[in-house]
Amino acid sequence: MIDITNLTIESAHDALKKRDYTVAELCDAYLAVIKERNADINAYLEVFDDVMEQAEKAQAKFADGTATILTGIPLAIKDNMLIKGKKVTAASKILENYVASYTATAVENLIKQGVVFLGRTNMDEFAMGSSVQTSAYGVTRNPLDRERVPGGSSGGSSAAVAMHGALAALGSETCGSIRQPAACTGLVGFKPTYGSVSRSGLIAMANSLDQICPLSRTVADAEIIHNALASCDPLDGTTVPMEQRIAKPRAKTMKIAVPSDVLKGDGMDKEVHDAFLKSFDVFKQLGYEIVPMEFPLLPYSLAVYYVVMPSELATNLERLDGIRYGYHASGTKSLFDFYSKTRGEGFGTESRRRIVLGMHALLHDGKYYRQATKLRAAITKELDHAFESVDFYITPTAPTLPFKIGEKMNDPVAMYYSDVFSAPANLSGCPAIALPTGMTPEGLPTSVQITAPRWEDENLFAIGKEFERIV
Questions:
Q1: Has 198 been annotated as catalytic?
Q2: Does 78 score more than 90 pLDDT?
Q3: Is 4-244 assigned to CATH 3.90.1300.10?
Q4: Is the separation of the CB atoms in 10 and 69 below 8 Å?
């Protein structure tokens, strides 16, 4: 019997190479867990019916010597990434039963390496949320505590990995939607430099923020998956040519900045703040000096995000009107009636809220959006200036422990606050990684987030591996 609880991509690859078990047997071990636990957790919306066919193709790569380290590795995929011929709904009724007509570039990169996709995972509708409570297909529960959320919007992917229903998973980030679920389920969540992974085939939420990212149990696994995802894609003009992915030259300082206001612990759960302060000991063991630093503009990041994101989102979702594809209302008497009823019934409450917010932000010739982009540029400049004197900056990944299901549904502002530490990296395009730091006495995970200058993704992987070795 395969012990999937301690598997990594590297150890699974070695076992497959030595023929300790086949790809089909490895996939069967994960499918057994899904069969046993998914009805309760609701991590997967669909288990693909061609898993064994994928496994057979992967096994053939081992037979003919073309297998890579990712060949035969069973992954989960968030329900907003296209695979040709398979359903993809972004967890929304308005895309119910939509079948993808092409495959996302990043996903195709993994398919070429022989990855086995087990199924599509639940998420907040169109990636709007921090808890997978806005999905049209039911909430997802945290495998570590069924009464609590698994984070969001990639909470279905984090739950799939946390319940041992996949070795790792793909999710997407717009503002912490990989890192915050990782924090809620005790996993590693990596957000790369913006422009390193193609967005083609990722259902758009906010174009200047969206990214495809890995969720895993180890930093090494996240690195392996990211390196396979990364490419320059002619289908996505925001991807940067490989030869231009060079970090700005600077001396290594062995210093890590901590925003001074974060040190106070305001707005954080005590357990989160205590675990964050305790993580300083690990960084000091690694030879780093912790430097308190003032970031006057960083506290405005979340406000900027909630102007930029809804504005771009409202524009993207205009295309979902029921005319060409997706859900369409019946029994309407006019075109306006058809549009309003289709979108009113097809979109959930949170989606409608953010569409209205975005349309409001775009009023008056988009002056609010323009002001937000100016402040976004200033925040980016502030971070760039800080990185002239430090190597990284750190915060808790999220301000609270995973909260109980239903706890914040009637207070959207409190829900949005889950992203308070995530927003700067997304607005600036910097890479960031969430690392588990331990468990509270109640068995809930804590996490620290490390952010690096743009294109220093490899430095994040390096410090992440050193950190997890000690923790």
A1: no
A2: yes
A3: yes
A4: yes
